[in-house]
């Protein structure tokens, strides 16, 4: 009955946990927006209508907010009956400007929701920020005018020449969307006064005039000039779907050819990109994949003379939700978790709203990154919650409702919570059941979080009601954790239990520090690194080990440094030599895996003074595919003409170098791969030569975006199997799941006794194989075994649980008796023992051994690699025979068997049923051996001798030809017949049979002279049945089948018993029965 009630409670809990929340998700339609306000641009004094239509259970009240402040209705601002906002005249200037962000708030009895932001823009255009300047150029060269204006919406730029619109009838003249005017191959008629005109829907403005003067160069040949970029591309930030212009204007003689490429070697989008004019790259409808570093290359035709200019394009992306919160139904005192993940450029900021207002965080309501967690739920938490993700490009919202279920007669909280550390990532939590309503508890929930710091994320695990202990094994090393528990019944949850804190053990560092390398002279390298953060150090760093060698020499030198060091100067090095360096860190547990080798070339020895290495600051990852490089110019007297930046992924060739201007102090590297290590090199350029080099390494983080760069947890190992090896060991094996990984895969196996209360009994085994033997276990104990996988600094979930019980202590049912003498009869009896003493002996078993080998002058025909045994003994103890010692009886036995067989065939042909008994009963008295043709036969006891018969088989399947090595037909009672060695009958064939013993009896099997394996089991006092007439005539089917199975088993050298199987060590010339 108790089991039935428990199952019923579990079904209630399943309904409570699964169905009710899903019903809240699928049935929640109490309040939502049908139409939300959108961005709009109007001219001053024009009327404006912002639409907002909500759906839900009436009555619905709609209010409006501007820049977060609630609006009041007036003559100029009116709330329409459908919820829309009407502005009679849009104002642009002064404090009464109507421009800004608008939102509508919809409310009914279930709660309130806020709409997305709508931007109202009053069209405007400012005076010119950049005016065109006068130019004086030679005939045939390039002229370029620029202008810039601030306009909303963006203005359209045109140019005037001498107060007339400039006609673009020739390919020599190009006007870019950004307002730049380019005139290639300037002619004398291009001279004049140029003016820029900017126009939008609200206004039109004109710039100052700029005069273009053209100098006549004459008719002589022009000198050759190297290519020079006079207007290169600039770093740009563009909104999604906008048009981007990367300008590139170059001069030279002959006229250079301009080409474009990407620094990450990816192809340029040929569908949205085009070349405007002589070499300007225009990308329309830009998307995130267009972000990256673009290279403009100006090359002199038919030569290798070229120059490069680079620019970084960053595409801004409005927020979009990757994971939306879901509506939930939770009992009072329970816990609700709302998850919200968004992506965008820049990364969106996430806030939470409750009924349209920002959530007030406290000790019970917390936000971890983007998750909202509400613990110890009360009726005041029943509301509509919204996740708001916003950046400078826009905002997006998603709503979910929390329904609080009231219940009475709740159980009391679990008590006596106790935590004990198992390892660096696992803590055992044990508790006692609640005092009140403990029989109605259907599940427990374990809540845990880091005890130090603010806004730490709280985790929850739900477990069944059939245990009072649980292992939390996904913790971080060297951290304090706090734990509490809640008990659940079908209609509610208990209060929180008392909190307990426990500290995990230290572990080896997860990663090494990133190195920064700089040379101050040709014979030294300054090595710097940052201390590891707590999450990576996994404990207190005890020491660092810096290793280095030259690229041409495999000899590695190492230096160990104390934990407070973050830099080291390597001196007495060779100039102009590539050195490889790496570092490793250690806690008290041990050393971590050393980092990969980082290369650095020491400067050349020269009397010329070159620029020192730039002061490279710590690299900063902007996201999973971009790195921000910052530096400062080193003080010195050498004038810096520019910088050269190089980078490459670990194990990959270097990307093309990037030329930077002398005034640049930062650069963004885009288009990188997530979770990869990159090395960045920077040096200054001067007229006298390249300066000293600064190197630094950095690993890009993993991408949060599930849509673009999923970082999935590796799957758990599968096909987990366990087998008990002994009373103290279990063999565990598994299969590696199918997933791609370039890193070394390792495994952790966990072995836990079922019903654990002692943490010291838990075993963790680390291995790189797919099997492990877990030793040192308790006998006759049931264990729970699981395996998890580690790859690419990620860990899989634990595999499915398998259970295995170790063998009982002293459970062997076989023993090896050695140094026995052939030809003797031994008496065997067995007793069991435990800690209290020895038990009674079993009944006595007689073990009769046959004579040893008697070979004269010749080696035996069959040899077993040194074995001197030619004795056959049956496991039932009735008979044993030395096959090679019976050569003197072969002829007589064969003649007798042939005669009896002929007689039997005659009887069968005449159709007469006759009984032919050729039974010879042999008695064993006082250990004397019988005489006659069956010498070597011994009976185990008297009552079997009374019923034994020697039967002559006449059917073909009842005879065995033992590979020509024996002329005997064996039944379970001894040798029955011999066959003529010189003449084989066609029906003397072997056939494998399964042997089924019809009576339980003491068994002994001898597999070698001097050694006996004894198998024993309970004795059943039952006599064999008397044979029927048919059995006398044709032979006992069961006995003959057993004899054939035994003879067949002897040929294969294996004896099978009811307890198992073992190797006999024979070569096929001895027969044993089962």
UniProtKB/TrEMBL annotation:
It is found in: Membrane. Residues 21-121, 127-213, 227-314, 319-398 form the Ig-like domain. Residues 848-876, 1041-1074 are annotated as: Disordered. Coiled coil: none annotated. Residues 1059-1074 have a biased composition (Basic and acidic residues). It is a single-pass membrane protein. It comes from the Eukaryota. Residues 413-507, 509-605, 611-709, 716-809 form the Fibronectin type-III domain. The chain crosses the membrane at residues 888-908. CDD domains: FN3, Ig. Residues 865-876, 1043-1058 have a biased composition (Low complexity). GO terms for cellular component: membrane. Pfam families: fn3, I-set, Ig_3. Keywords: Developmental protein, Disulfide bond, Glycoprotein, Immunoglobulin domain, Membrane, Repeat, Signal, Transmembrane, Transmembrane helix. GO terms for biological process: cell-cell adhesion. May play a role in anteroposterior axis elongation. Belongs to the immunoglobulin superfamily. DCC family. This is Protogenin. It comes from Oncorhynchus kisutch. The gene is PRTG.
């Amino acid at each position: 009955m108790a089991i039935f009630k428990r199952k019923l409670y579990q079904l209630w809990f399943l309904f409570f946990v699964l169905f009710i929340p899903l019903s809240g998700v699928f049935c929640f339609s109490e309040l939502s927006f049908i139409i939300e306000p959108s961005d709009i641009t109007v001219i001053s004094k024009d009327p404006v209508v912002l639409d907002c239509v909500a759906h839900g259970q009436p009555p619905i009240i709609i209010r409006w907010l501007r820049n977060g402040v609630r609006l009041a209705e007036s003559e100029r601002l009116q709330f329409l009956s459908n919820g829309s906002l009407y502005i009679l005249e849009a104002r642009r200037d002064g404090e009464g400007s109507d421009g800004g962000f608008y939102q509508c708030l919809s409310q009914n009895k279930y709660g309130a929701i806020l709409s997305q932001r709508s931007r109202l823009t009053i069209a405007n255009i400012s005076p010119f920020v950049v005016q065109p300047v006068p130019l004086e150029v030679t005939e045939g060269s390039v002229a370029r005018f620029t202008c810039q204006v601030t306009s909303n919406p963006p203005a359209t730029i045109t140019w005037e020449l001498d107060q007339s619109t400039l006609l673009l009838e020739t390919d020599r003249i190009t006007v870019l969307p950004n307002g730049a005017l380019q005139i290639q191959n300037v002619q004398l008629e291009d001279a004049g006064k140029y003016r820029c005109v900017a126009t939008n829907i609200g206004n039109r403005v004109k710039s100052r005039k700029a005069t273009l003067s053209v100098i006549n160069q004459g008719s002589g040949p022009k000198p050759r000039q190297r290519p020079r970029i006079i207007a290169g591309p600039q770093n740009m930030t563009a909104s999604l779907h906008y048009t981007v212009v990367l300008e590139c204007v170059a001069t030279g003689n002959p006229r250079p050819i301009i080409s474009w490429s990407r620094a990450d070697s990816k192809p340029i989008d040929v569908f949205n990109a085009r070349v405007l004019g002589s070499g300007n790259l225009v990308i329309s409808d830009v998307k995130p994949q267009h972000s990256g570093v673009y290279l403009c290359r100006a090359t002199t035709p038919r030569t290798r003379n070229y120059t490069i200019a680079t620019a970084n394009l960053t595409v801004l992306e409005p927020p979009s939700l990757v994971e939306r919160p879901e509506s939930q139904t939770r009992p009072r005192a329970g816990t609700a978790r709302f998850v919200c993940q968004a992506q965008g450029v820049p990364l969106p900021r996430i806030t939470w709203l409750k009924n349209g207002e920002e959530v007030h965080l406290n000790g019970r309501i917390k936000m971890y990154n983007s998750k909202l967690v509400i613990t110890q739920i009360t009726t005041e938490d029943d509301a509509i919650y919204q996740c708001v993700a916003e950046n400078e490009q826009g905002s997006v919202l998603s709503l979910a409702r929390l329904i609080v279920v009231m219940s009475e007669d709740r159980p009391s909280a679990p008590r006596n919570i106790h935590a004990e550390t198992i390892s660096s990532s696992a803590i055992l939590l044990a508790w006692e059941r609640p005092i009140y309503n403990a029989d109605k508890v259907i599940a427990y929930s374990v809540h845990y979080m880091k005890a130090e710091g603010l806004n730490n994320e709280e985790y929850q695990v739900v477990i069944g009601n059939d245990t009072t202990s649980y292992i939390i094994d996904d913790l971080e090393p060297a951290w304090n954790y706090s734990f509490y528990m809640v008990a659940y019944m079908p209609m509610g949850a208990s209060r929180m239990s008392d909190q307990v804190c426990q500290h995990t053990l230290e572990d080896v560092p997860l990663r090494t520090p990133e190195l920064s390398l700089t040379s101050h002279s040709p014979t030294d390298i300054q090595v710097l690194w940052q201390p590891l953060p707590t999450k990576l150090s996994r404990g207190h760093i005890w020491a660092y080990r810096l290793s280095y060698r030259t690229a041409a020499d495999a000899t590695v030198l190492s230096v160990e440094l104390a934990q407070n060091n973050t830099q080291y100067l390597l001196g007495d090095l060779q100039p102009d030599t590539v050195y490889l360096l790496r570092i490793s860190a250690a806690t008290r547990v041990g050393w971590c895996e050393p980092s990969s080798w980082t290369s650095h070339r020491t400067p050349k020895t020269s009397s010329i003074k070159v620029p020192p290495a730039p002061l490279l600051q710590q690299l900063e990852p902007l996201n999973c595919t971009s790195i921000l490089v910052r530096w400062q110019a080193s003080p010195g007297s050498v004038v810096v003409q520019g910088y050269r930046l190089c980078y490459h992924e670990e194990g990959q060739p270097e990307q093309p170098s990037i030329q930077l201007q002398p005034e640049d102090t930062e650069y963004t590297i885009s288009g990188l791969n997530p979770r990869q290590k990159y090395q960045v090199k920077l040096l200054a350029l001067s007229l006298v030569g390249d300066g000293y080099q600064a190197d630094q390494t950095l690993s890009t983080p993993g991408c949060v975006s599930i849509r673009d760069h999923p970082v999935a947890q590796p799957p758990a190992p599968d096909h987990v199997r366990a087998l008990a090896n002994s009373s103290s060991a279990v063999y565990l094996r598994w299969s590696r799941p199918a997933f791609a990984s370039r890193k070394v895969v390792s495994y952790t196996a966990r072995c836990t006794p079922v019903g654990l209360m002692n943490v010291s009994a838990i075993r963790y085994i680390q291995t790189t194989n797919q099997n492990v033997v877990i030793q040192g276990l308790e006998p006759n104990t049931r264990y729970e075994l699981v395996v998890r996988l580690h790859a690419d600094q990620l860990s899989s979930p634990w595999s499915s649980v398998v259970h295995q019980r170790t063998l009982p202590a002293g459970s062997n049912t076989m023993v090896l008796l050695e140094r026995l003498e052939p030809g003797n009869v031994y008496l065997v009896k067995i007793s069991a023992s435990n800690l209290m003493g020895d038990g009674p002996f079993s009944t006595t078993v007689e073990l009769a051994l046959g004579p040893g080998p008697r070979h004269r002058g010749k080696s035996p025909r069959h040899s077993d690699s040194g074995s001197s045994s030619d004795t056959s003994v049956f496991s039932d103890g009735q008979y044993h025979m030395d096959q090679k010692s019976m050569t003197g009886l072969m002829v007589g036995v064969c003649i007798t068997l042939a005669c009896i067989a002929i007689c039997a065939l005659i009887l069968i042909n005449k159709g007469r049923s006759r009984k032919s008994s050729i039974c010879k009963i042999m008695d064993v008295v006082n250990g004397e051996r019988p005489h006659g043709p069956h010498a070597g036969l011994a009976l185990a006891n008297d009552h079997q001798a009374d019923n034994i018969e020697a039967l002559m088989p006449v059917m073909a399947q009842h005879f065995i030809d033992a590979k020509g090595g024996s002329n005997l037909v064996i039944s379970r009672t001894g040798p029955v017949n011999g066959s003529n060695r010189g003449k084989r009958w066609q029906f003397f064939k072997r056939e494998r049979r399964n042997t089924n013993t019809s009576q339980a009896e003491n068994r002994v099997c001898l597999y070698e002279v001097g050694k006996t394996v004894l198998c024993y089991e309970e004795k059943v006092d039952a006599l064999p049945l008397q044979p029927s007439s048919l059995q006398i005539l044709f032979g006992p089917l069961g006995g003959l089948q057993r004899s054939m199975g035994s003879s067949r088993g002897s040929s294969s050298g294996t004896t099978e018993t009811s307890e198992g199987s073992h190797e006999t060590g024979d070569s096929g010339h001895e027969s044993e029965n089962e």
